[in-house]
Amino acid sequence: MVGTVVAIVIVAAVVVLLSRTVRVIQQGSSGVIKRLGQFHGVRAPGLAVVVPFVDQMVRVDMREVPRTGDRQDVITKDNVSVAVNATIFSQVVDVKLALYDVSNYQVAVDQLARTSLRAVFGGLTLDEALSDRERINAELQRHMSPAAEKWGVRLNRIEIVDILPPQQILNAMALQKEADQQKRAAILKSEGEQQAAINSAQGQRTAAILRAEGDKQATILRAEAQKQAAILAAEGSRESQALDGEGRATAISSVYQAIHQARPTPELLAVLQLDTLGKLVASDNAKVVVPVETAALLGASQALRAVLADVPGTSPAPDGAGVAPVADGAATRSGAGGAARPR
Question: What's this model's pTM, rounded to 2 decimal places?
């Protein structure tokens, strides 16, 4: 029994000794070795061997740790009390400073954040605090970083979570926002009406210009059409006159050729002249103008008498018989005097 008890004690002592000698450090942490109360070294993650009952190891988390502070009341530059809380993302970069330069670096960072919040918000108005969070974050980091670096802690970033003004301030802000919205709505409505009026005026102006241009173009086209019609009418009239002239010339030429081919005698011409003169006298005209020489007519009558005298059973008419007097002073002319005498 004694041997068994001794063996059990020895095994227990070995287990305890091994547990105090061999330590396991997790990834993301560091082990700080204290030998007889003094800083001895830092062990990396993995298996670490220490002297039992002499060395003491303290594990320090080296990862970035987010810590959200408690909500606290701060006063802005315009004397408005607001409730603010922030989240601090910190990371230990020097384990020796974190353990030996400050009693508790986590509490120290939290208290530093509280004082920095009061300092930063004390220099801002309520409107600035509500609208410019990026500036607040930068100011907080600028205030806290120098002190945190002395403790071996690096502040990666600081984010404001909530900024809550009092309820009466919120009500006033809601009324102000509603008034601003109504103002913007009225402005937008007036600008819309103005733009609509401008668009309507521009449309009417464009329509009037287009109508004027259309009327101008129509007038030009009508004038060109009338000009072309006049040109065509003139050309047609000229061609018609030319054709009429050519027809009359052809007719005259045909008559002339027929007369010359028939070879008329002076007696035939005299008879035709007298016949034509008789038709003029028999007309209803009050005046008869003979556009030929009266002496030639009388000569024609004398020639006709001579022809009739040669016909048996006829007697010549006395001189001047069958010749009508010239109406209304139409002039007659003979070889020497004003009276017509037979030749």
Answer: 0.49
